[in-house]
Fold each of these.
Amino acid sequence: MNTSMPSPFSCPSAQPDMAEARVIGVVSGTAEAPRIAYLKAEAVMPASQVSMDGALSVSEVFRLAARCEEHRCSQFADGRCSLGERIVKGTDAVVDTLPSCTIRATCRWFAEQGEPACLRCPQVVTLIPLGRDKLSQAAALPAG
Amino acid sequence: MATTTLKAETISTAKLSAAIDKAVLIAAERHQVAVSDTNLRLNWELVGRRLRDAARAQAFASDVSKDITKNLGLKVQPATLQVGKLIYCGFFEKVRMPIERGF
């Protein structure tokens, strides 16, 4: 396998320092039940254009996508994204139609988990306070 | 029979600013931090020199600032800024700080 080739897939829950990072959504809903409001294609912007004033990080306010880092990511295991798998297995669907999302064509979660990932995706916020809710448990890497 | 469809929200460019304000409030509540109620972009223009000795930088900045005030009558704020290994010291002109820009 040629490991120097960039991944064709996008990470739908990325950090701003990742390659091709861009804002695809804004945290909406409530503090207790945050939901992602997805940007229309015209509003998607590079993560480099966004800065916060110190008290909050970009990932706490926005939902970012970036190029999937594959083996360099702790969530990548057995050639798949284990986070996407745990999100589907460990959380409930929060919408019953597919979100209007700009990265579905390249999204690793959609490619591997299909529509069930999309129906759970709006509840995924990249930085989550420690808690015992289903999302926190799904996001945590398994011990060992 | 009426049915309810749960749909994810979408945001256009026109509504992006309001959505960001709401997102900041939600994040502040979730992470229990205090934030200002407006978005800020602060443009700071440091006038000065680059030094190698961090320990002496602030004293250098203070001396320069005193001289500027004394000789030119400008109100300035001495400042030292370290960016990685680079140390800049000098002053900010008080009339220029800060510039607040909403976005």
Amino acid sequence: MHAIEAVDLVKNFGDTQALRGTSFTVNENEIYGLIGPNGAGKTTTLRVLSTLISASKGRAEVFGLDVARQPEKVREILSYLPEEAGLYQHLTGLEFLEFMAGFYADDRERRSSFVEEGRLISGLGERLRDRSNEYSKGMKRRLLLARALMMKPRLAILDEPTSGLDVIQSVHVRNMIKDYADRQGVTVLLSSHNMLEVEYLCDRVGLMDLGVVVAEGTPDELRDRYGAKNLEEVFMEVTNHE
Amino acid sequence: MPIIIFPVMGGAIRISQESVQRAVVGASFAVYTDDEGFVTEALLEYLYNNNTVVPIEAASLEDALRQFQDTDSNALIYIPRGYNDNLTQSMNGELMVYANLRKLNMAETQSTNVVSSLINIYNYYFSLSKIRRLLEQTGAAGTPEAIRSPISVRYASILKGTVLDIPPTSIINLVMSQSIMLPIMVMMMVMFAIQMAATSIALEKEQKTLETLMTLPVSRLTVLAGKLSGSIVIAIAGSVSYLIGFGYYMNSAFAFVPEATTMSIDEVSVGITPFGMLLVGMVIFVTLVSALAMALSIAVFADNVRSAQSFTGILITPIMIPAIILMFSDIDMLPQAVQWVLLVIPYTHSIIATKAAFLGDYFVVIRSIAFISVWTFAVLYVAAKIFSTERIITARFSLGDVRKRMRLGR
């Protein structure tokens, strides 16, 4: 069974067609990166898979569950980090993790273990006792990522996880994702327009352009297939951009 | 906040009323006379007795007015030449009252009113004594009071089939002072709850937490129920504090109104029974749920808190209009067309129901509850539809969009 199976996804927003038949599969325990320029349809794809919006046509399954027909069951096994996610500003980092853990665990022991995991993932230490409106952008992103991963979801969907972060914070976040996925065996689907980042992080990659996945494979396979030095060159070759 | 605001308002009004009363009681007035004679002397004696009077000695009225303006008095009674002669010849005696409006406040007009009252009382007894003398001279039958005011009217009221020897205005004043609280309370509570519910959903959008919230393992209807119940709990807590604060405000601000202290609501058998109170509770509850569901449905279309509050501002208008109209009149008293317009607005029924509960007309209350409940279910259905679809994420609407569409249409 695939972790994700997306088949001919089409999404229309009025006259605009954001997805024009997106198809790809993600295997269990792998980190899969959707890459492409702005407007390629990456975020729309992630939103369909995380049950936020529904596809106009096509089918998508997460661990065999249909995202359109069984959205509540899908939400039990996935965790989604939106690109522009925010925090409840009146809560401290710790309170935010406790609040979010409450949605995934009824008993106090499990909740505490999730919060402890979140505390470790975030690496924010004592700063977790501060209100989140006092955090830097990098700290906020680390806390949000900790929230997304702390309950060990079967699938973590991360939209542009390092967007807007400086180099140091980006490296930290990348390492957090890679370490956690390796350690916990979590399947990760992430999107990025930073192709070098995806090359470093992902086991397999899907190149998206104009609402379709135009090429798919491991970074090595793609480079070899198109005789390119890196994924940027692969992308330019596949999409015929000059 | 309301538990502080209303008592402070009530306290402020009470302080200002008391200071006006103190100013009136201690008000001094000036007297200047150009006339003499025993009738004038009698008036002066009456005025000087039990009042703080500032006598003005001057060569002319102009001088007297100048001197008057240098005193602390707010009113000057001027007795012109001929007052004594006119009255002794059974002609009209004229007095002139000058009010010095230095600060244009209520106390200044009150002291003029005190002077007017003093003169009216004097006028009344003076006329009675003149009539009595005429009756003695002519030997005619009758009393001076009956000749001065031949017709007197006594008022009684029929309330719920019982004839009460109480003027209708007294009952209405009493009932109004109590029943006015309910529409105000309902209106304020609903507006408070609407703003809060709209803000709660708009804040999720503004702080970018809505997408995360919508991917958590809870049903969308649970999120809607959570938002509704949270807002209801705070709205009820808010309205209880409004009630306490407003009650104190009414008591302190209108403590000087004699009707409210001399007659209790029980004496005229008007008031809310426990059953009526229960029905009012139901009215408030269904009203709140529908208003909150509507606020949440509308706020979904806003990007931020400011837009949400602009949108809900539109919603507040149909709540305020019936509340204000029905605060002072009854639905049956309005023109037919206005009645129909008001009756279409569900929140009109909330106010009709609270008033009817007060008068023990439970059929009207239950009918209103039924109407609001149907409306509430309709609104909840729409809210549930919006929350269970992607509209909660994708819906966007701004006043700018309307302007753009209008420009394109043109």
